[in-house]
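#structure-requests
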Amino acid sequence: MKLKGITDVFFDLDHTLWDFDKNSALTFGRILKLNNIDVDINDFLYHYRSINQKYWKLYREEKIGKEALRFGRLNDAFLAIGYQVEETMIYKLSDDYIMHLTAFNYLFENTFEILDYLYLNYNLHIITNGFDKVQHKKLTKSKINKYFKTVTNSEMTGVKKPNPKIFNFALQLANSSSSKSIMIGDSYEADILGAKNIGMDVVFFDIHNTVIDDDIKKISNLIQLKKYL
């Protein structure tokens, strides 16, 4: 069913348009090799992914800062696989990761197709908890920056999704209102509940078939947005 009255479409970036897991895995493959860290990459990534999610949750909840996030997720991943790494190397790997992350820019299937389609009739925007410089590089190097009128990130606002302040900031920047806007994202807590709580419509981008409240619109491929917009 097509939604009426929507003028502005807000997207999350990582895990929604930009394929974070794939690009991150390729980045780790590169930087571990560059620094002569001899580990089983699949074993490392298996532990890193859940540890990274845990640290991002703490970061969203304002319980840790950016540096603690960047150091802790790597340190804990190496501890989980029983590989000893000096603290100085953890910091170097953390810097190398950020430096090389945007060398890989795989997008989810049909990203360009859906952005081309939506761009004709809606104002498109980004709301992300990611770091300012890195997120802008992702948008530019993946060649999707041209679609978006505004980009709101947590470093600009001092708060992170699902805090209502970041959504209200984004709406003000876009010169729009919650009643005319919709949020598309992969995080049920940060994107979906955060946007719903200020009165925005939402679409949950869910490739994992998560069990959620039945009244939430869900898609598993971006092209399915055509059903609503």
